[in-house]
Write a structure and sequence with these properties.
It is built from 10 helices and 21 strands. By secondary structure, the protein is of the alpha+beta class.
Amino acid sequence: MQLRAAASAASILALGTHHSAGQSGYYKAVQIPSRNEADRAGIGTGSHIGFSVYGYRFVLLGDCNFALEGLAEDFAFFADKGTPENLGRGEIRLELVQGVPDYDGLPACDASIYTPRNVVYRHQGVRILDFGGRGLGTYDSANRVFRITSEDPHLVYEAAYLFLLSQIGQECDLRGMHRLHALAMSYKGHAILALLPMGGGKSTLGSALLRGSGMSILSDDSPFIDREGNAHAFPLRLGLLKGREEEVPKEHRRLVQRMEFGPKYLVNYSYFAGRVVDRAKPGIVLLGRRTLARQGRLAEASYGTAMKAMTPNMIVGLGLFQGLEYLLERSTGEIAGKAGLGLSRLRNAHTLVRASRNFVFHMGRDPDANAQCVVALAERLFGKEEGQP
């Protein structure tokens, strides 16, 4: 498995020289033809940042530099797949504006969808999202334009980030590639997938594996699984536990204020880009369990046990941002009509489990010891890396 040619930065806590995204060419400015809607909104034309995520193409533009720079870092892995000659035809435009939302100019209409983050209104085919009076979003799916305006740059960033997660997930679902809520590493071309709930320690285990082994990373939260059970990379950013932010140099981390969950430190993609691989074939599925024991232990898991874990983490998608405010046209009753999607996810999960070695991983208190347990299992099943004793 070859590493991406553009990924030259060292990994989490590994030795090596680090470069910023601009220095390493992780994203490039391209000229996008203007649209009347953008011109009227005062966004203007010029240099925009373009990306393609497994066929979902989008561009970033606007004046909210915090959001523009953050999203450019998050999706840097996919920047070189969007070329100037391809962009401008069919891509989604994200207009990121830092300013006062114009609530007085909104039409009078009733709300259609309520979420913890926002209230959604619909008017003449356009979705209007009210973020508690602090931000205003509009999504014109016919003209493929999403615009978010707020005086708070953190809200602009998070709203755009969550919009992209929702839309990319929906697009890949249609292509038969489904997200799995798991840490995804790669060892000698084999995927090592650790299923843990939100806050269960995926990022901590991933950081320990990057720090103490020769493993590569696909995603710290949600790789894509195809119909053959292969895991595809979705490396956006790494989260840091409170109190451990000093483990990463200041220039490679940033603090974001989240709408629902408060502040969080994030590690930029450019910091661990050199350890990212595109894909890995089925290998090991770890069903993580937190314990109070000092040392972790592994036990073989049956097909039924593994599929039971796949139900919330892939088939239903608990722990993965779905974005009902962008997916549903009218109400949550539409979920019942998505049976075909559920069957496709079930099929991919079945293929993955059948092709993998499945284990229950009773994780101990020591993150480094947990990582060594995973490494020892991978070496036993797939052999040691070259040069290892």
